[in-house]
């Protein structure tokens, strides 16, 4: 098990700096991805196709950050050959940036739905669900990144638990929208855009959970990706 100070005791101060820098870059990427999700949701709800286009353009920057951070991790592995907790940190960062890039992709998909809705006319319903689930998964991403920054396994576990609630909210919202489409088939095209946006938000929640699982791996040294919540809780609470 490690704590937040474990990476500050190397003989090489340069190694300390490299680890701190790559972690900072990952968290900066996370902040940009968070903003991308918020901007995409706002663009959809407000019918702002210009803002949606900006989200799609900014996705290129997210992709570039993923490549750059991955290269940093590769250099550290090659030059420093880290062991134990340092190796787990580099691996966890490398995995987390993949999930962050995919969250950025989902924001881009929501932006695409926003553009299509702005062209076809406002959706008759579904925005309440998008706002609610969007806020929920936005908090999950924020908390997952905070957990990574602090090496906080309790916060990471809380994020993993929230994913189940998002899945339930998503299922309820989709069932409601499908019922609405059956009652008024003229809305099918627009409501499908809403469903695809909700699906992207549900995937954002999945990736936030993945980042939380990387935190638990980093701190506890156990891969919990295929653990249920009960097993994960036991692992976090195991001293």
UniProtKB/TrEMBL annotation:
Main localization, broad class: cytoplasm
The protein's name: Phosphate-specific transport system accessory protein PhoU
Organism this protein belongs to: Oceanicoccus sagamiensis
Keyword flag Transport: yes
Pfam families listed in its UniProt record: PhoU (PF01895)
Keyword Glycoprotein on entry: no
Annotated compartments: Cytoplasm
Domain PhoU: 27-112, 130-215
